[in-house]
What we know:
Blueprint: H1 2-11, H2 22-25, H3 35-48, H4 51-58, H5 73-76, H6 87-118, E1 126-128, H7 139-142, H8 147-152, E2 158-162, H9 167-170, H10 182-187, E3 191-195
Parallel strand pairs: 1-2, 2-3
Helix pairs in contact: 1-6, 3-4
Amino acid sequence: MEPVTSLSARYGRSSSGEFQFEAVAGLGDISFTIILPRIVREWLKNRYIDEASMNTARGENGLKWESVSIPNSGSREVVDCGILRDPEKRGDVIDYFRFQHEKLAEVIIHLSATVRESWSRPVITATFFGYFHNLFGRHASGGHMAMDRILASPHIDCLCGPQSYDPAARRMGGTGHARGLIDPMRRAGKLWLDEMD
């Protein structure tokens, strides 16, 4: 499973092992490998079916599968309204982040299934995942946007994350809220562990 292998190696290089992307870890554009553009193009073909659909969705003309490139870190930082991007201006960036989040979920599910299947006794599987609050304006690169896939997986029992880094949340009388959305996890039968970071 080539995409899972290459992406798991990539995310293992982050600064904290929290399954975050290179922009958050300060690693720059490490995603520009020989293999990744091909994997992105395969993902786009599954998403859009044909080039005309991709061009319509992105507000472009004449874009071909083989000419699709990975947006650089500078273009991935540009937003149009708060943390949101205009799909007609930044469809390439939106697609790239969607690709990353779906593949990241695939990696985590694959690794969790491997742990569960290879352990000699019942085991609880856990992962740092589900960050939603306090992402320093980098929700697409620092958050986890494919929660539906993780929550639907029978291979993952528990999600973990630090409490919010918002100073008001951490001081005496503050909210002390988690970085994840706890209720969807509970509804999916998952446990949330709040890290005292």
